[in-house]
Design brief:
Blueprint (H helix, E strand, L loop, with lengths): L12 E9 L4 E3 H5 L6 H8 L3 E3 L7 H16 L8 E5 L10 H9 L5 E5 L5 H14 L6 E7 L10 H4 L5 E9 L5 E9 L7 E2 L11 H5 L6 E2 L1 H22 L9 E4 L4 H11 L10 H4 L6 H11 L8 E8 L3 E8 L4
Parallel strand pairs: 4-5, 4-6, 11-12
Antiparallel strand pairs: 1-7, 2-3, 6-7, 8-13, 9-10, 12-13
Helix pairs in contact: 3-4, 8-9
The structure holds coenzyme A.
The site of coenzyme A has 21 residues, from helix 2, helix 6, helix 8 and strand 12.
Length: 338
């Protein structure tokens, strides 16, 4: 007899609720002028960022993620007890272990969920969506709570002017479920290239270079990045992934109602826009207010787009991301939420 576990037919998967949370504390470019040798104008011209949010001492990736999760669950009309699986995408977990998803579970009372973290840097939400899709479409679980959350300020070298201007803290969450009448995810193109790992990384604190007096003295517990190289790869990789996803489902940019690009740098978004085409109004931008929030970036933007009335049932949404690894990708879904 065939194993019943493998007899499920695939179900359409959609986002039934979103939520986001950013800390109250705003750090403006003018504030950064007092910390490093930079100017508001330089940051604005080179990145498009005006300000970012910085978590307080008692705010962690899990507490921000939990608040975003509560808002997403309320939006979906789902109780915490109904959640089967919590995935937290992050590069700034509360601790190396236990996983941050377990802390979120405890905070929101999702007593029936199993929980794990997923590390795909700034592409965490798209990678997480792919994983959630497999769980829900197969019928293995009904409800996934997917969170992208970061306290990037905790791994930021506040004396490195080429880095500290770029990032901010925040969290976003999505409830992923199946709906009979939903079209769901139309295409996804996820890629990685470990050969380029050294261009964007946090060298110390893992098993390769455990914490020591020397690693702390050398500031190896902070992010390191070759900005120019990352910039070039980000543009090429995100453009290629988006084109691949479009061709997979036979769509053109004309068919896309909204593009949610990773909110890293306005110049990167413009360069992608030049290559992909499509009306500039379609490219959602909130990086001026938050900077790059890594794994939270795409889902915070998606939540803001949904809440500000930019998304309607039937809209095709193209999400594009890129991060350290390198890991990148593009996902196209049909929005089904009214
Ligand atoms: N303020 C003023 N000057 C700065 C500065 C700052 N905050 N940061 C760097 N500079 C200086 C550099 O020291 C350099 O000076 P030099 O020519 O005397 O050496 C000059 O500005 C140009 O630096 P460069 O690195 O070529 O600038 P850039 O145009 O590439 O912009 C980044 C730098 C970091 C903004 C840009 O490379 C970038 O956004 N890269 C991608 C980063 C990213 O998105 N990473 C995350 C991906 S998930």
């Amino acid at each position: 007899m065939k194993n019943p576990r493998y007899q499920q037919t695939l179900r359409p998967v959609c986002i039934t609720g979103t939520g986001s949370f950013v800390p109250d504390r705003i750090m403006t470019n003018q504030d950064l002028e007092k910390i490093v040798d930079t100017t508001d104008q330089w940051i604005l011209d080179r990145t498009g960022i005006r300000e970012r949010r910085i978590a307080g001492e008692q705010e962690f990736t899990s507490t921000m993620g939990a608040e975003a999760a509560r808002r997403a669950l309320a939006d979906a009309g789902v109780s915490p007890e109904e959640v089967d699986l919590i995935i937290v995408a992050t590069i700034t977990p509360d601790m190396v272990f236990p996983n941050t998803a377990c802390y979120v579970q405890e905070a929101i009372g999702a007593t029936h969920a199993f929980c794990f973290d997923l590390e795909a840097a700034c592409s965490g939400f798209l990678y997480g969506l792919e994983v959630a899709e497999q769980f829900v479409s197969s019928g293995r679980v009904d409800t996934v709570l997917l969170i992208g959350a970061e306290k990037i300020s905790s791994i930021t070298d506040w004396s490195d002017r080429s880095l500290c201007i770029l990032f901010g803290d925040g969290a976003g969450a999505a409830v992923i479920q199946s709906r009979e009448d939903a079209t769901g995810i139309l295409a996804s193109s996820l890629k990685s290239d470990g050969g380029l790992a050294s261009l964007l990384q946090l060298p110390a604190g893992g098993s390769r270079l455990p914490a020591s007096m020397e690693t702390v003295a050398q500031k190896l517990h902070y992010m390191k990045m070759d900005g120019r190289e990352v910039f070039k790869h980000a543009v090429t990789c995100m453009t290629t992934a988006a084109k691949d996803a479009l061709s997979q489902c036979g769509l053109t940019m004309e068919d896309i109602a909204l593009v949610i690009p990773h909110q890293a740098n306005m110049r990167i978004i413009k360069a992608i826009g030049d290559r992909l085409g499509g009306d500039r109004e379609k490219y959602f931008v909130n990086l001026d207010r938050y900077g790059n929030t890594s794994a939270a970036s795409v889902i915070v933007a998606l939540d803001e787009a949904a809440r500000s009335g930019r998304l309607h049932p039937g809209d095709k949404v193209l999400m594009i991301a890129f991060g350290g690894g390198f890991v990148w990708g593009a996902t196209i879904l049909e929005w089904s939420k009214a």
